[in-house]
Structures are given as C-alpha cells and as structure tokens.
Design a protein that fits this description.
The structure holds 2 protein chains of 2 kinds.
Chain A lengths: L1 H28 L1 H12 L2 H12 L1 H5 L6 H32 L9 H51 L1 E2 L5 E2 L2 H30 L1
Antiparallel strand pairs in A: 1-2
Helix pairs in contact in A: 1-2, 1-3, 1-5, 2-5, 2-6, 3-5, 3-6, 5-6, 5-7, 6-7
Chain B lengths: L1 E11 L4 E10 L3 E5 L6 H8 L7 E6 L2 E2 L5 H4 L3 E4 L11 H9 L7 H10 L13 H13 L5 E5 L7 H14 L6 E5 L3 H7 L2 E6 L2 E7 H7 E6 L1 H4 L7 E6 L5 E6 L14 H14 L1
Helix pairs in contact in B: 4-5
C-alpha cells in the first residue's frame, strides 16, 4: 500500500506545491475560518489523485499488479489523512509563528484545527465510497454537495460557538466530541463500503 | 503444469460475449492470441488476471484459481503489459522504478536500470513526453524486472519500430529459455507471432476457434493458387475459404488431409491461415 501512497504523492507533488502556497496565504489572512477551510480542502486531494488515475487508466494496470482491493482503497484514505494532517500542522505552525511575533493577523486556534480535521474525516468518509463506485467525474457532483453541507454545518457550529475574542471561537466540548465520534464512526463504515463499491465497479 | 488454464469461461456484456472459452497454455511455452479488434483478446486477459469476473467457468494461472486469495501472491510471478502503458503521465522512469520496488517483493532495480539503458529510456523525462514506443518499452521493462514466471502481453509490440520490435522479441525468446517461463501474447502483427510462438489461439467474436501448436497448424493447411475449375475438383469441405488472386485465378486455404495426394499446395503463413479463417467464418 505504501507504494500506492508514494505514487499518489509523486503525482500530486506539482499540485501540492501550489497548494502549499495557498495554505500559506489562507492561514495567514483568514484566521479561524482559514484553519478549518484548508484542512477540509486537503481532504479532497485523494479525489485529484483518483482523477489522475482515471485519466491515465492506472486502475486497469493496478488490477493486474499484486495490490489487493484493500490496498487500493485504503491508500486513498491514508493519502487523505496525510494531507489533512499536513495541512493542519502547516496551519498551526504558521499561526504559531504569527502569534510569537505578535503579528496583527495571528489567530492560533488548535480547536479550530481539530474541528477542521474531524469535519474533513467525515467529508472523506462520505465521499470516497461514492467516488469508488461512480468515478471522479460523476462523483464530483456529490463532492460539491458535500462542500455545501460542510459550509452549512460550519455555520451551524459557529452559531452555537461562543466568540472568545481575537476572532477565535470556543466550540462546546460536546459538539467537538460529537464531531470526533462522527469522524471515527463514519470512517469505520466508509472503509468496507468503499471496498465493496470498488469491487462492484471493477467487476 | 499449465501456466494458464481457462475452462468454459462465459462473460456477457450485452452486445458482446465470451462464449465457452477453454484455453490452455502449457508451462514453458509461448502462446499467441490472435483475433480481430473486438474479438475478446483483452477481455480474456482481464479475465485470467481476475480483473474481471466471469459469469461462469474457472480460470487458473500458474496452478492457482484466480478467484482464490492465494492469487494475490501469484501476481508477483506475472508480468503484464497492456495495450498501452497506463502509468500516470507526470511520473518519470526513476519514480516508476521506486514505486514498483514497493510493489513487487522480487523487484530487481539493477535489472530495471539495465533495461532502461538497453531501451534508451531517459530516467528523468516525464512519461507524457515519451513517444508511444518508449512508453511501451517502459511497460516491458517493468514487466520483466520483477522476475516473473509468466508474461501476459496485450499488443505489447504495437507502436515499436521494427528494429526495437525484433530486439523485444529476442528478449521474450530469451525469457522462455527457463523451462518454467511462459508467455501469452496477443498481437495483430502475425509475423511476430509466427516467429515467436509455439501455440496459436484464434479468437473470433468471443469464441475460441482453435488453439493449436503452430507447426501442426502449418501442416494442417495448404495454400492453393490456380484456376477456379481445378479448385472445384476438391470436395467442398476441403476448402476453408477462397479469394480471387487478381490474375483470373483463385487463391484458397485448403485442408491438406482432405485434398488428394499430389495436389499442389504451398506452405501457408500463420497470417494466411488466420485471414482465410476469418473470411471463411464471415462467409459461413
């Protein structure tokens, strides 16, 4: 499976360079919202990797190689988690530096990052089975729907969150815990479902 | 042991179907899979690699049922080249090598480097900037660099210039010097198959019309070239198919065992046999 993740990283590297610049920009200038947004955006990198796979018909070649369905499916989840983790860390690091130098746009918000990670894990868990079943082209519609829902949910969470100054949000612990459990549960359901969908599509 | 054994495979796609396909490739031999576009060659390859599930029938590769969990390990012993090299276009040969090193347990990096040099493939150039011939050469280099016992080649020599094609055919011949090494190769270039193969399997509209030893096939048929009246002296069952030869006479594929002794027949090429068989099947 590591070979597949490596392959996706090589394929995405060009895009990732642009992504890093955008992360830098959003993390610096968009405060708490930016922290959540970039992590959610990072969770969509596996879709780009899948689009490249479809375009080059890599999946046809992969079916001939000693990769199991589990390897192929899990590699996309791992790629998503890696991208999300890296984006959260990058955003934290940038905000940490800005806070340390007392920059006016500083908004170090680890809770916001955690919120973003949980929301992103949910997005990944819901969209990947659909992508595996219908392919990226048709699955894209669902992705847009997901972005809409995530934005709506973010609005809902912010309405029950309390502003604690400097643009930072205090999210009730119960909401955060609920989102964390939702991320774990949806991933646990999503993985076997994706494998089933992938088999259906292949055979 | 047989390298490949397909038994009564059926697979329907609506407008097209593989019907009762039985194909055996003995270990240590090279089998050429021949057929028109859409005859089912690529589908057969996908079925035998378990990339496609048959509606019925069984497939075994290197003695293992392709639907069993053990087949995953058997794939280590199978080198596959499809009709196009489906590597992501932004990768280069060096990156492909590193990815394959993590894919195959017996990946031989030195051998891969050797093939890259032999085929004149630049390591740092993106796959998308390779010519079609170079892309196919990269796919062949990958297929040969993990010490496979079976090569499955789907139009692997298409797009290669005659000199490289000849070199690649020599490599395939070299590969089968090991007695447990086998090849299944599909190609439209019948002269390549005649040069390379021990067996010829002919697929037509999803049905396997024959799978015979090449030498036996060449002995079974003969080419008749003379007047139409002389050809009509033969019993109809002896004539597989006929065509006008352009000089007022006819050219026909004839079954030697049904022609009278002394009847003048030339030795056919595999291409002659296949072309006449397709023509005969269409006329039937």
């Amino acid at each position: 499976m590591s070979a597949l993740v490596r392959k996706d990283c090589c394929v995405l590297w060009k895009q990732m360079r642009i992504f890093l610049v955008v992360i830098l920009f959003i993390a610096v200038f968009n405060g708490a919202f930016g922290n959540v947004f970039i992590v959610v955006w990072a969770s969509m990198m596996p879709f780009t990797a899948m689009a490249y796979d479809e375009r080059s018909k890599w999946d046809q070649l992969a079916a001939m190689m000693p990769y199991s369905v589990r390897d192929i499916v899990l590699s996309k989840y791992v790629l998503g988690w890696l991208c999300m983790g890296a984006a959260a860390l990058a955003s934290l690091a940038i905000q940490g530096i800005l806070t340390a130098v007392h920059a006016p746009m500083a908004s170090l918000d680890p809770v916001g990052n955690l919120l973003g990670l949980c929301a992103s894990a949910c997005v990944l868990a819901i969209t990947l089975p659909i992508m595996f079943r219908f392919g990226v082209e048709r699955g894209r519609l669902v992705m847009f729907l997901m972005i809409f829902l995530v934005c709506g949910s973010a609005g809902a969470v912010s309405s029950i969150a309390v502003e604690i100054g400097d643009g930072l949000l205090h999210v009730p612990a119960l909401v955060l815990a609920g989102l964390f459990i939702a991320a774990l549960a949806s991933t646990a359901v999503s993985l076997p479902l994706s494998m089933k969908m992938y088999r259906k599509r292949t055979y | 042991m047989n390298a490949i054994e397909l038994s009564h495979i059926n697979k329907s796609f609506g407008g097209f179907a593989i019907q009762d396909l039985c194909l055996t490739v003995p270990s240590g031999t090279i089998c050429g899979l021949v057929g028109e576009n859409g005859a089912g060659k690529s589908t057969t390859i996908r079925l035998l690699m378990n990339a496609l599930r048959p509606d019925s029938g069984t497939a075994q590769v290197l003695g293992v049922d392709v639907t069993s969990p053990e087949f995953q390990a058997v794939k280590e012993d199978v080198g596959v080249v499809l009709d196009e090299a489906y590597f992501p276009e932004v990768l280069n040969a060096a990156q492909v090598g590193r990815i394959m090193a993590g894919t195959y347990r017996r990946w031989d990096a030195a051998l891969y480097q050797d093939y890259l040099r032999r085929f004149g493939l630049p390591e740092k150039k993106s796959f998308k900037d390779y010519s079609r011939g170079m892309q196919m050469k990269l796919a062949i280099a990958v297929a040969l660099s993990h010490q496979p016992k079976l090569l499955v080649l789907d139009e692997a020599t298409a797009g290669l210039d005659p000199i490289v094609r000849d070199e690649v055919l020599d490599i395939f011949n070299e590969f089968t010097r090991e007695e447990d090494h086998s090849i299944l190769i599909s190609s439209h270039i019948l002269s390549d198959l005649e040069k390379l193969c021990d067996y010829i399997a002919f697929l037509h509209q999803g049905k396997l019309l024959f799978c015979d030893e090449k030498d036996q096939l060449l002995e079974t048929y003969g080419i008749f070239t003379d007047s139409s009246e002389q050809l009509d002296c033969l019993m109809p069952e002896a004539i597989v198919a006929r065509e006008a030869n352009g000089y007022g006479g006819v050219r026909a594929l004839v079954r030697r065992n049904l022609a009278p002794s002394g009847f003048q027949l030339e030795r056919p090429s595999v291409e002659d046999i296949i072309l006449f068989l397709v023509k005969g099947a269409k006329e039937a």
